[in-house]
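User: Some background: our group keeps a shared notebook of sequences we're curious about, and every so often someone picks one and asks for a predicted structure to add to the entry. Today it's my turn. The entry only has the sequence so far, pasted here. Could you supply the structure so I can complete it?
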Amino acid sequence: MKVVRKQRSGLLIFTTANGTSDGYNRFLRSANQTGIEVIPLPAAAGAAGQEVKRLRAALERRAVDPRRLSLVLGAVASDVIVAGSAAEIVAAFRKQKGRVVFSGNVHCRPDASLADQYPKSESYRFLDVAAFIGHGPDLVSMLSDDDLETSDGGQLAFTRLFLDKAKRQKYGLGIDRKADIMQGLTGSYEDVVVRYRGRQPFLQNTRFSSVPLVVHGDAQSRQHLNTLGNYLAGGWEPRDGCVACWGGQLELGSEPETFPRVLLALFIDQPTPFLEEFFGAIRELIYPKAKIDLFLYSGAKYHHGAVEQLAEKVHGAYGSVTVVGREQGVSSRAARSQAMDVVTPMLAQIYTTRGNFMTELGVDMSAAPPAEYKAIVTSKRKGLWNVPFVSECYLVKRSVFSDDATRPDFEDGSENVHNTFSKTIVDSGKFLLVSNRANFGHLVDPRGFNTSRLHNEMWQVTTNRWDWEHRYLHQNYSRNLDPSVPVAEPCADVFWAPILTERFCQELIETMENHGQWSGGTNTDPRLAGGYENVPTRDIHMSQIDYDREWHMVLRYYVQPIQQRVFAGYDEDPPVADLNFVVRYKPEEQPALVPHHDASTYTINIALNTPGKDYEGGGCRFLRQDCSVTDSRRGWLLMHPGRLTHQHEGLPTTSGTRYIMVSFVDP
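Assistant: Of course. Here's the predicted structure to add to the notebook entry:
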């Protein structure tokens, strides 16, 4: 295959300092896209004038052609992105008035007292030595100035040169006041946004309606530069997404024995709901287990048994299995030090915008998450994103933890280990990348997880709804919402539909029996307003086990969609149910229920166990329809009108114990 190389453009870029490797590689990629030649300068000796002399010498050697422009970066190259082509930069320079043009700044640095000596302007009126551009001979002429030669070559020296009117005119010095070429971010990052011409990203200065072609930052504005770098210079585009993501990938091949060995470290710091499912997903990871060293930190007593059970199940299958915990006197921070270029799989809590990363620090994410964050966390934009903070899950090269400059000190006294990790990596100059190119999983929210109940995850429908659904919502529930699948109707206007799993039914029975405070089955009932029950049953109200709020979510999100389908036109939202209770039928206690109407617009009756297996007899008979439902299905609901048309009775349970869950909806 013939290799076609890009022709070198009429533009040179001289760098005075490379900076960090990740940022410098980004800079090189941005420059090389249009064939711009980058010339890194050797380090200066440090004496006065050496910085200027080494730059002048390099220009005399490499920029002798008066037709060729040279862009000099006083900023470290890792804080620079070339956003435009060489041709665009050359064209924009030709429109400038000066022969040597400096980047503009909103601040007069490093001496604010010199501000009044600058020409008046409503634009970026102050010189910034972070970037300047001109033809080689003009730059050499400026750098040959006697005062500049004996200076340190810093911001103040060039400022004084510019403020000397005679020298400003002699060397043709100007400032890119509207960022037509160079855009500094410090103090003006709010002036710029990324926009697209078709598929091509460009930087727009909204203050001056200009299109900056080179953007530079510093330590103060690096976070914003990194955000822009997610899109510029081939970072991301609307059709193909993350263009830069395909570089530097490790192809694993098809021979498992050649796969890299990885350390999989799991830290169970606090009681966490649905850990059972998480451990199941870990065991199903598609990667040679012999190539995985599994490290388990058990810091929550509530989960010790589950952690030990996992270790026993996988022992011998993995390369190694190590379990440590507080019992051995090992803190979570110390364990992290034992366990460990950074990529974080993007994880979000489903039905929310809570993710394991931030695109901006110091922002109230719950009140108004930034638009870029929302686009990433919802996967509307997919790619590799340079961010200032990650949490919960990291993919880290071992070399990061063997290097003192990048190894986080998890015992530094800070309150949050994720802050420690993120700050250490970012401060070292490495990129902290989050990937949403694939679905890596999701977050659960452990905050406020109450472990005092018999089956604690039952209450998580309000906090971790997606996980609750996958454990407790019937596997065929979605068929209820499919208009091509009829809802079963065993009696006229009595509908039958799957809603809850057998596990939920069993855990609800066990919870009620553990609570134990069944009503007496008489007309006297102090739980009700007025203290009188017209048609009494042996029951426990959901409110008695503190489950009313959770059950109302079940009614709204899972019962109401069925109701709206079978009783079209009734759209009370949210549904309200004052009475939600589990009824227990026993031959020796209360075997049946007399004919009655319900105090509801409609009623649901969910079978919690199975006839012929857990009990004999039972069922529900609708008198006016002369129709009975006796072959109840565990986890299925019966839905029927409560008043007037559907008088019904509970048929006798002849042996065993029958449990049903009843709600009177919209009384």
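Suggested note for the entry: The two ends are 77 Å apart (CA to CA). The chain has three domains: 11-232, 256-435, 456-665.
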